[in-house]
């Protein structure tokens, strides 16, 4: 029989003991016969020994993280006949050590929660990133307590900070755990989950009901369309995966191992040469545009001139060797496309950078003074308590983070692309086939909303080829990384929204100019 392990982590006096006490007194664990409560840190609030005895809860104090091993937990489970374990984990200990523990004998890790006081969260977030972020990166929920004094805006800010570290983590502002269905549910034994009809299940039932009443001929059409979408989706995805992996490893390797100070110094120069270096620097940073966004914010916060930084960001996908390799693989019959993509990307980046220089826009005008994104990259991988962690291991962990962060957007882009390719009526295709402006607008909107990864958007662009002209497809491939919504969102933490809107409009105008020149040449 499987024995669940739940972990409640947090710093000293964060409210971990109070949280677990509420679980105990609220009969949340009544389905378990023998419970092991492992306490890794003794706070001001203690557990009631009498209550623990009534609930058949064995309290075990863990003084050293090295004591928490799979063998120890298995021995403890057998000795005390435990059927459930909850760990009050020390927030200053390396959470990765616990997560990497090899569990045996039916033991399995179920939930990880991180608890913090509302007043202290932002202080930890800004000043103790190396300790805080690894816990948040691996938590199912971040629980904020003692939050009554927070305004609506302050709560939203905490939620946004949590999402920046881990988009899959939920944020719970807790008053009483007995009133929060989400937390109660995750601590309920699986076999006792209530059989509820979720919106997804209801939608599936409706779809199946409609299919049951459709004529056989209609079902055949539905099946054919689903098959077309599936084949197109898988084709795009399978071709993209190797390049996502390559880009993720290179991104991690460059950020953790290769010194980039020389290139940064060259970009920082206030000369014509600095724009040339900025436009070509992407060749030495073969990183997905998703991985570049945090680097861009870091450069801006360090005072690197805005025009050169924007030039570097926009041109990086054009000269990125991984991107060029993916274009070569997606369009093997037309090598000219590689040259055009390089020239178009560098042209757009240089023109926009020079315009920003002529407008004399300074960092102080557009960079937010309260930006908190800087310094959030390396701390997710290196643990401050274990400086001896090998770089090879750190690179692997960094690549894992990069891959899964990018892959979710590639899935969405591939799905949108495959659906549009299957269901866009032939009539609309014929209407847009001869109109340059409409084709550009459609590809421009698609590039922004699909937000495809720069190292893989060539494969999605290839799927549009044949229905749109080659210049239109090239505009999608070139402008996609520049107008990527997910990157714009990341950059909005460092740059004012007004400037980002102006920058997007400027990219649209310069992009259309480049597209028109390509259309004339081809």
Distance linking N and C termini: 67 Å
Oligomeric organization of the protein chains: single chain
- Helicity, in percent? 55-70%
Number of helices: 24
The proportion of strand residues reads 5-15%
Question: Which tags fit this structure?
Answer:
single chain; 522 residues; alpha/beta; Rossmann fold; 2 domains; 9% strand; globular
SSE layout and pairing:
Elements (H helix, E strand, L loop, with lengths): L2 E8 L5 H10 L9 E5 L9 H6 L2 E5 L8 H11 L3 E7 L4 H5 L7 E11 H10 L1 H9 L3 E5 L6 H14 L4 E4 L7 H6 L12 H15 L2 H41 L4 H8 L3 H9 L8 H13 L4 H14 L1 H10 L5 H23 L4 H4 L24 H33 L2 H7 L3 H15 L6 H8 L5 H10 L5 H7 L5 H25 L1
Parallel strand pairs: 1-4, 1-5, 2-3, 2-4, 5-6, 6-7
Helix pairs in contact: 5-6, 10-15, 10-18, 10-21, 11-12, 12-14, 12-16, 13-14, 13-23, 14-16, 15-21, 16-22, 16-24, 18-21, 20-22, 21-22, 22-24
Walkthrough of the structure:
The chain is globular. It has helices at residues 16-25, 49-54, 70-80, 95-99, 118-127, 129-137, 152-165, 181-186, 199-213, 216-256, 261-268, 272-280, 289-301, 306-319, 321-330, 336-358, 363-366, 391-423, 426-432, 436-450, 457-464, 470-479, 485-491, 497-521, and strands at residues 3-10, 35-39, 57-61, 84-90, 107-117, 141-145, 170-173. A seven-stranded parallel beta sheet has the order 3-2-4-1-5-6-7, with helices on both faces. The protein folds into two domains: 3-192, 3-Layer(aba) Sandwich (Rossmann fold); 227-521, no CATH class. 60% of the residues lie in helices and 9% in strands. It contains 24 helices and seven strands. It is of the alpha/beta class and 522 residues long.
């Amino acid at each position: 029989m499987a024995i669940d392990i739940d972990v409640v982590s947090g710093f000293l006096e964060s409210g971990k003991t109070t949280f677990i006490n509420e679980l105990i007194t609220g009969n949340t664990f009544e389905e378990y016969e023998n419970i092991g409560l492992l306490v890794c840190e003794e706070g001001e609030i203690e557990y009631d020994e009498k209550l623990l005895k009534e609930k058949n809860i064995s309290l075990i104090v863990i003084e050293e993280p090295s004591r928490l091993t799979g063998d120890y937990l298995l021995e403890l489970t057998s000795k005390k006949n435990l059927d459930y374990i909850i760990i009050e984990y020390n927030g200053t200990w390396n959470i990765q050590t616990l997560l990497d523990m090899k569990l045996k004998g039916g033991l399995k890790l179920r939930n990880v929660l991180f608890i913090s006081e509302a007043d202290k969260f932002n202080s930890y977030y800004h000043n103790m990133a190396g300790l805080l972020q690894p816990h948040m990166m691996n938590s199912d929920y971040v629980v904020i307590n003692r939050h009554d004094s927070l305004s609506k805006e302050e709560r939203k800010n905490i939620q946004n900070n949590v999402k920046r570290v881990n988009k899959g983590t939920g944020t719970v502002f807790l008053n009483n755990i007995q009133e929060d269905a989400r937390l109660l549910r995750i601590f309920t034994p699986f076999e006792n989950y209530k059989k509820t009809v979720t919106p997804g299940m209801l939608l599936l039932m409706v779809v199946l009901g409609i299919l049951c009443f459709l004529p056989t001929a209609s079902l055949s059409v539905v099946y054919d369309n689903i098959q077309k979408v599936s084949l197109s989706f898988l084709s795009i995805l399978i071709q993209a995966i190797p390049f996502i992996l390559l880009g993720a490893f290179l991104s991690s390797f460059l950020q953790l191992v290769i010194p980039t100070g020389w290139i940064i110094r060259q970009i920082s120069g206030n000369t014509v040469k600095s724009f040339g270096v900025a436009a070509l620097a992407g060749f030495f940073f073969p990183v997905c545009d998703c991985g570049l966004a945090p680097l861009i914010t870091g450069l801006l916060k360090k005072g690197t001139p805005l025009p050169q930084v924007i030039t570097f960001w926009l041109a990086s996908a054009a000269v990125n060797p991984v991107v060029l390799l993916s274009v070569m693989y997606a369009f093997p019959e037309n090598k000219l496309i590689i040259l055009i993509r390089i020239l178009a990307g560098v042209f757009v980046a240089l023109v926009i950078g020079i315009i920003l220089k002529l407008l004399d826009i300074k960092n102080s005008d557009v960079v937010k003074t309260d930006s908190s994104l800087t310094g959030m990259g390396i701390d997710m991988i290196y643990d401050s308590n274990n400086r001896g962690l090998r770089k090879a291991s750190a690179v692997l962990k960094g690549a894992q983070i990069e891959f899964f962060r990018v892959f979710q957007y590639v899935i969405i882009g591939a799905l949108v692309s495959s659906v549009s390719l299957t269901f866009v009526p032939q009539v609309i295709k014929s209407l847009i086939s001869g109109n340059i402006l409409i084709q550009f607008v459609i590809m421009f909107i698609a590039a922004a909303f699909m937000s495809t990864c720069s190292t893989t958007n060539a494969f999605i662009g290839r799927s549009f080829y044949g229905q749109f002209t080659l210049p239109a497809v090239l505009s999608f491939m070139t402008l996609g990384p520049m107008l990527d919504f997910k990157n714009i969102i990341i950059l909005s933490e460092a740059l004012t929204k007004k400037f980002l809107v102006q920058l997007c409009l400027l990219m649209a105008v310069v992009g259309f100019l480049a597209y028109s020149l390509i259309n004339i040449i081809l």
